[in-house]
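Retro notes (design track)

What went well: tokenization of the new backbones is finally stable.
What didn't: we kept losing track of which sequence belonged to which structure.
Fix going forward: every design gets posted as structure first, then sequence, in one message. First example under the new rule, 348 residues:
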């Protein structure tokens, strides 16, 4: 009996229909495929799809259920990645895009599988990057790739219409405010005052650059020597101020997770560069000033609170499958990110 007739279908995957699509659109695939969900992320549903020859692919689709109008646009993500394929930014290759929701209930895309290590915490770093030299290389490689991303001419790669060239910050403030309101969390952590401060103190627009939107160590695939093999998760990519990416990298480099009691960060281990060293490296490689980082650090903390609030709401509403056992602790982390933002803004 065909295993696809007896095994439960993965969340959001109509196995036979998706297998058929693979056979018609991904020439290197040999159906049938098995689908193993990638854990660790809380946004789109991501699966490693392994075909009959043992070749692995990666499939991404939105969460199931109703979503905000602009949320989890995976075809847009695929377009961005395809546009960056021949640049100095390492990332997987897009192999196919399905825009027919009849196949499995939503658009999805398939990309190449890149072998690499994901470092999410200090235990990962200790095991996967045992050499202090490899750890130092990792930090600088992340910054160098970010500077390379921000140096790309948006029109040359065909991304000049990815978003409006002006008003990035105002759009971000509106978008994540709307998400926060939709989550129904009220003034948790004093987020209203932080938002008001961000609006009142927003800097002038800079020249538009490609902004990744979620640029951090946990979205990188690494070699054991610290080589950067691929940057993942381009869902939030847009045109905007490059300091938003720099601040996000620095904040996540040094921020603890309140849900885990503030466990040690990877960057605390010997060898990893400090946030000051990373900021200086970015200024050197990009040629751009970094004097407004405090504002952008406060902004990225506020936005991170909004993003995690959305994750909490999707799990609570059953749109991401079974919720994690520690789901209530997500609200602890949401509030911690608000407090962190208030600290950068000197509101506490």
């Amino acid at each position: 009996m065909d295993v696809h007739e007896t095994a439960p279908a993965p969340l959001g995957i109509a196995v036979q229909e998706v297998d058929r699509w693979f056979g018609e659109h991904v020439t290197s695939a040999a159906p049938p495929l098995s689908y193993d969900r990638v854990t660790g992320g809380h946004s789109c549903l991501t699966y490693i799809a392994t075909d009959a020859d043992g070749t692995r692919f990666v499939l991404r689709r939105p969460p199931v259920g109703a979503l905000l109008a602009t949320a989890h646009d995976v075809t847009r993500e695929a377009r961005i990645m395809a546009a960056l394929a021949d640049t100095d930014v390492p990332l997987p290759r897009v192999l196919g895009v399905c825009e027919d929701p009849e196949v499995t209930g939503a658009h999805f895309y398939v990309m190449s599988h890149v072998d690499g290590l994901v470092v999410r915490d200090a235990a990962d770093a200790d095991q996967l990057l045992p050499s202090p030299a490899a750890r130092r290389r990792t930090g600088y490689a992340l910054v160098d790739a970010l500077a390379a991303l921000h140096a790309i001419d948006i029109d040359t790669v065909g991304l000049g219409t990815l978003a409006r060239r002006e008003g990035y910050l105002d759009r971000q403030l509106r978008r994540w405010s709307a998400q926060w309101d939709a989550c129904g969390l009220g003034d948790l952590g004093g987020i209203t005052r932080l938002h008001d401060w961000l609006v009142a103190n927003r800097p002038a627009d800079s020249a538009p650059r490609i902004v990744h939107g979620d640029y951090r160590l946990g979205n990188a695939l690494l070699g054991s020597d610290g080589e950067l093999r691929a940057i993942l998760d381009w869902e939030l990519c847009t045109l905007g101020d490059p300091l938003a990416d720099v601040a996000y990298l620095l904040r996540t480099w040094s921020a603890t997770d309140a849900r885990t009691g503030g466990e040690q960060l990877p960057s605390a281990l010997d060898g990893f560069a400090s946030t000051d060293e990373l900021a200086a490296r970015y200024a050197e490689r990009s040629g751009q000033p970094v004097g407004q980082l405090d504002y952008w650090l406060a902004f990225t903390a506020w936005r991170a609170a909004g993003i995690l609030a959305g994750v909490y709401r999707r799990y609570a509403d059953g749109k991401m499958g079974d919720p994690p056992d520690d789901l209530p602790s997500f609200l602890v982390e949401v509030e911690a990110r608000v407090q962190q933002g208030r600290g950068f803004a000197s509101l506490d």
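Added context from the reviewer: The first helix runs from residue 3 to 6.
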